[in-house]
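pinging the channel bc i need a second pair of eyes. not urgent but kinda urgent?? the chain im working w is below, pasted from the shared doc
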Amino acid sequence: MKFNTKTIHGGQQHDPAYGAVMPPIYQTSTYAQSTPGGHKGYEYSRTHNPTRDALEKAFASIEGGKYGLAFGSGMAAIDTVIKLLEPGDEVISTNDLYGGTYRLFTKVYEKFGIKFHFTGMSNPEALRSLINERTRLIWVETPTNPMLNIIDIQAMAKLSKDHNLLLAVDNTFATPYLQKPLEQGADIVMHSATKYLGGHSDVIMGGLIVNDDDLADKLYFLQNASGAICGPIDSFLMLRGIKTLHVRMQRHCENAHKVARFLLNHPKIENVYWPGFDHHPNHEVAKRQMKDFGGMLSFTTKGNDYEEAVKIVERLEIFTLAESLGGVESLAGHPASMTHASIPKEEREKSGVVDSLIRLSVGIEDIDDLIADLERAMQ
């Protein structure tokens, strides 16, 4: 079954009760038992729910994995991965990553004795100096948020296997439409499914996908023990969103390509960060491991002027000034004061998140309207 078909049918079956094409919403907390322990596969909805089960099978199918887990948010999914570790363990993470991930690592888990190393990952071999007997996990975003850096998943997988480490890849920006990290050697794939997988800015959710049986058992145990699950209505909405992932991503990519070219030639713009450019660092890696270059891009105005950047995002009309990304509608954000405000200014700027940086989630509207909106905002 090819990907475009998997988004609609992968891991799914018609409801056995009445033949419903879409999985019903099982809005129940508990299930009747004929005798203690005698049930039809479901006891309590924190542990299992038929609607969530259908979604988790869909997650696994589109990522090419054996097991999928659905959580109440992307952060809940990341939190569950870090709970695999113990005090004294160490993690190597990219230094250009979502501010919420950085906050969870530094403000929550560092006080429990887990050490995090934040570093650039354009050259995987340079990471070997950070690996020691306490290293357990490498955490990768690619493309990164918000600088759109590309990290070589296959090279990181080789590095992790050489040292018996887990490799987790945040695949939120690319989605499985563009790349499948498990096929390139990753152990865990994470999604903020709120974004492209849901695609309509109407549900908060996270996902994990793995192949290894033992790792899956550990993650399922933590999911059930901690209770960071999603509800059946949210599961239903996510399943509906996934069914159009392939057609949405195609338009996101087409529109982002044209917006990136427009910005590259605009006299008020200093830098445009988009992996589809020939001059983008690791462009060749992006060509190899991705089907296309995605719907995300970032840019800076000339002079690194904070006030000018804020004025631009405030003037936009079709692009909505808002947190998040990946919906059908175009969104604009100012990372330094919004999504990445939890990262200290000095650390932000080391990875390129300067005060004039603007991040765009290019939606699926008419491209002429989007470019006209940007042109008007920058006049």
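so Residues 264 and 272 are 6 Å apart (CA to CA). and The longest helix spans residues 245-264. — does that match what u expected or am i reading it wrong
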